[in-house]
Design a protein that fits this description.
The structure is a homotetramer of 157-residue chains. Chain A is of the alpha/beta class and 157 residues long. In chain A, α3 crosses α4. The radius of gyration of chain A is 14 Å and the shape is globular. Chains A, B, C, D: Pfam families: LDcluster4. Chains A, B, C, D: This is TIGR00725 family protein.
């Protein structure tokens, strides 16, 4: 069974986030990892396009019950019909979660992944979580670029 | 149909969070609101106990498929069998979400509520979400005490 | 914690099914049971109306993510946002499942309840399940009327 | 995007059901279809093994939140953490559903597929659903062998 890595991020993203997600997808496919994503636009579409450009397998886990909103670069489409509860399915499927950029949906995936505690969570930019005293909450690794993000997952040590 | 308010917070909480959650539950029941919570300990149990002390209805939406982990102050128990995907059910059921204290599970509920955008989200303490430039992400109301939290929901204007 | 009983049946039902569901709801409320239902019309609405006529608590577990399709006799509304996956939430919440009438959605609830194997399943009319040799598959109790259905759950022995 | 076909059936199955499921998986892979299954043993494992023997892609949609119960022939593993609510995810993902053999879990998938009404449902043996008058409920196609089942989906007309 191949390694599975989720790339999570906003459906509307900056050009920098798009580039980072695309490169992350491309590198993951090069390592033989299956890419798990939310199947929509923005960071999800960029990671999917990057992975497909390197011949990778891409699974899109959609909130809707049908495939009408599926992006063009998905190998497998799972229209869950679960709405945003599908975010927990994405997280459960991942040996590591790489977060690119910030949005409320993205933050819910990051938080669900940390709550599950099964897979390393790596951020490339995006939102920051502080405790009541203003200190960063521990546990998330911040990477500087896609290659560093793959290293930080520890999956290819 | 009664107003439904979710109180979310960690299963292991500080004494201050317990007191705030208990008082929030008590005040909500006094207004005739149905309390929706995760049905476990800590903030969830405190809010449930507060609501029951005022004769309120308390719904516990559990991650497990059976009732064995249900707290003692629940009027109705929904063992969803969904794991942490049940957090989105809690959020969908709420006319307002009041967050007391911080944890990864709690943050996922806060983020899912903001993502849905249907209900006001009010925090009593807890974790803070900043964008990449270190500024608080807009949209969450921070209240000073339980009475202020109820006011901040806007449900009883 | 009160006993919780699910009444499942089609959203479009016959007059006989309506009467049976209404009487079942009324009797359940008389016993102090919380009624769990799908929250829509037909058998679900009849059971809810019956329970409310006797002062009972009625929980509607909706497929949609909001309350717009909720029936008028629900005490608590859980808009799950799960689509028909919500059928498994209904089943998990029930100490017994009473099925009135037949439809594909209803059959899925009956099958999920039998699959879980935690709660007795009682039918008042409705569809029949046969094995390949044409024999009824064992395990479901067939009742003759609502009072018999309550007896058959074994909850009040 | 490839055609996606679900093969559903019991985790403990007869030798005849195993052979039929294996041949169905093999034929589906030969057509380039992605096989969606529940990822466990019996019919699910047989269909997966058949598809892999022909070089196909196999997606296992598991009830558990982790991969420990995943079968050996899965290309992609989705540990949903949803319990039997995952049956609706399988159904939503399918352009056609082929049912081999009978069990309560299998029947729930058949019923959810008919409830959704989006994809043709084809049975190879298995349980039969009758209305109150003892007549088969319309809508399911009964096939005589795996090749006939593929034809009956209408996906390759």
């Amino acid at each position: 069974m191949a390694v599975q890595v989720a790339v999570c991020g906003p459906a509307e993203c900056t050009e920098r986030d798009w580039d980072r997600a695309h490169e992350t997808g491309r590198l993951l496919a090069g390592r033989g990892a299956v890419l798990i994503c939310g199947g929509h636009g923005g960071v999800m579409a960029a990671a999917a396009a990057g992975a497909r450009s390197a011949g990778g397998t891409v699974v899109g886990v959609l909130p809707a019950a049908d495939r009408s909103a599926a992006g063009p670069d998905l190998t497998v489409v799972l229209p869950t019909g679960l709405g945003q509860a599908r975010n927990n399915v994405i997280v459960n499927a991942a040996d590591a979660v790489i977060v690119v950029g910030g949005s409320w949906g993205t933050l819910s995936e990051l938080a669900l992944a940390m709550r599950a505690g099964r897979a390393p969570v790596v951020q490339l930019g995006g939102w920051l979580v502080h405790d009541e005293d203003g200190r960063p909450v521990a546990g998330i690794v911040h990477a500087t670029d896609p290659a560093d993000a793959l290293r930080a997952t520890g999956l290819w040590d």
